[in-house]
Design brief:
The chain is an alpha+beta fold and 261 residues long. The chain is 46% helix and 18% strand. The protein has 2 domains: 18-79, Winged helix-like DNA-binding domain superfamily/Winged helix DNA-binding domain (Arc Repressor Mutant, subunit A, Orthogonal Bundle); 92-259, GAF domain (Beta-Lactamase). The strands form 2 sheets. The chain has a 6-stranded antiparallel beta sheet. The longest helix has 24 residues, at 236-259.
């Protein structure tokens, strides 16, 4: 099931603490490349009133989650958020189980290997092992977000959703990228069919890079997605087939070890 509501409704859930939900939305506005945000910018990005934004940013400063730059009249994430992220990585059983196997596979196969989960309109890397980064490959790190609709990771995740949840996700992505955005329907339909028939899908959303991905689903665990990628200029389908067996073998290995945890 989709775990997040769409932008217009996510502050109005009666079962949630509204102030907490709104505070989290403020923290979400900070992304890589955004060093400092003022109350006006935060208000615009979240849809909260300026008075509510001002009250909540003050609270987040008092709780240690934001730092206030008085001179520049803005806010930035505090060191506490980094400590929380570190605690998550160190305490994650999925990362502890997957990381050494991903590293071994990367070194043996000379491929990049990643593990990610969905978060609203993006996939978030939990772990990324880069075999030999080149200019054509971006430096992917844990915590980095990539578009859910364009990547093999995202499309593999989409393949696990029921029709209603897939439609809800489409609407959510549209709310985040309303200008000039087009849902890549044919590519996603092909990816969903590929996962259901062959267990994986492929994408080449970055020039010169081909990636394949497969979902990992077990009861009592979130839906994780495993991927492998490499720098290549051959047709995507050909490169993907070369990585397919190794991807699915690693997937099976991870499912077995996670099942016993």
């Amino acid at each position: 099931m989709m775990q997040q509501a769409q932008r217009r409704s996510r502050f109005g859930q009666s079962e949630s603490n509204r102030s907490l939900v709104r505070g989290v939305e403020i923290l979400r506005t900070f992304r890589p490349g955004i060093d400092l945000l003022g109350n006006g910018e935060i208000s615009e990005r979240t849809g909260l009133s300026k008075s509510t934004t001002s009250r909540l940013t003050q609270t987040l400063v008092h709780t240690g989650l934001l730092d206030h730059d008085v001179k520049r009249r803005g806010y930035r994430l505090s060191a506490l958020t980094l400590a929380l992220a570190h605690a998550m990585r160190v305490g994650s059983p999925a990362i502890a189980l997957a990381a050494p196997r991903m590293k071994a596979a990367s070194e043996r196969l000379h491929l990049n290997v990643g593990l990610a989960v969905a978060d609203r309109d993006a996939m978030v890397y939990l772990e990324s092992v880069r075999y030999n980064p080149k200019a054509s490959l971006r430096s992917i790190a844990a915590g980095q977000r990539v578009p859910i609709e364009l990547t093999s990771l995202g499309r593999a995740y989409i393949s696990t959703l029921l029709d209603a949840d897939r439609h809800a996700l489409i609407n959510l992505v549209r709310s985040y990228r309303p200008s000039g955005w087009k849902w890549p329907t044919r590519e996603i339909e092909a990816a969903v069919a590929g996962v259901r028939k062959h267990g994986y899908c492929a994408a080449a959303w970055q020039p010169g890079v081909v990636a394949v991905a497969t979902p990992l689903q077990l009861s009592n665990w979130p839906t994780y997605v495993l991927n492998m990628s490499t720098s290549a200029h051959a047709p995507t389908a050909i490169v993907a087939r070369k990585m397919r067996d190794d991807l699915l073998a690693l997937r099976q290995d991870l499912l077995e070890v996670m099942k016993g945890f």
